[in-house]
Amino acid sequence: MAVSARDCIFCKIVLREVPASIVREDASTLAFMDIRPMNPGHVLVIPKAHAAYVEDLPSEAVGPILEAAKEISRAMRSSGIRCEAVSFYLANGVEAGQEVFHVHLHLIPRWRGDGFGLRVRADYGRMADRAELDGFASKIRTALGRSPRRWVAHRTEIRSVTVRSASAERTFRAVGNRLVFSLRKWSQRNWTRKIPWRLSS
């Protein structure tokens, strides 16, 4: 259940009414260490203005959150904290795992074998049926309030290029499966060789 700004623990951190280990601050965002880290070095990035859910954020407040996260992610990799990669995670609602109802983006240091990860459905990896995907896309476009006319032409253009026939669709799926297999083999081979994943800044 969403709470008011007056009762929000993150708003109290912004106002320095409760302690926090601050990592970064600017005019619209604040980043601090998670008091219950999923991995050592776990950081939270929040907007200073109270918003329970992402859709409650004003447009101008969205970009700065990711800008702050980008800087912190780069810093994590060079900080000396164990960090071979960084997971970005944002829970938006109770069923998604949100516990504090003030928008917050988790930055979690990761390394091979850290034991942390998301549980997936048993059928994960199944190539979805194109008609099923088109149906979901249509529902979301409708909810976005886009003009159907704009999307009809766009959809026709896409289908003419990528899924012109059932044969083309099967070819697309086969290529996708080969790519997934190749990436998996490459990943396994290079993890074994312990090639670093750190990107140059």
Looking across the biggest beta sheet, what order are the strands in? 1-2-3-5-4
Overall 3D geometry?
globular
What name is given to the CATH topology of the largest domain? HIT family, subunit A
**Radius of gyration (Å):** 21 Å
Mean pLDDT: 81
- For this structure, what is the CATH homologous superfamily of the largest domain? HIT-like
Show unreliable segments: 147-164, 186-201
The H-and-E topology, N to C, reads as: HEEEHEEHHH
Please report the distance between the alpha carbons of the first and last residues: 40 Å
Largest beta-sheet characterization = 5 strands, antiparallel
The percentage of residues in β strands lies in 5-15%
Q: How many β-strands, per DSSP?
A: 5
Please write the CATH class name of the largest domain.
Alpha Beta
Written description of the protein model:
By secondary structure, this protein is an alpha+beta fold. The protein folds into two domains: 5-110, HIT-like (HIT family, subunit A, 2-Layer Sandwich); 130-192, no CATH class. The chain has five helices and five strands, in the order H-E-E-E-H-E-E-H-H-H. Strands 1-2-3-5-4 form a five-stranded antiparallel beta sheet, covered by helices on one side. A hairpin with a 3-residue loop joins strand 1 and strand 2. The longest helix has 27 residues, at 166-192. It is globular, with a radius of gyration of 21 Å. Mean pLDDT is 81; it is low at 147-164 and 186-201.
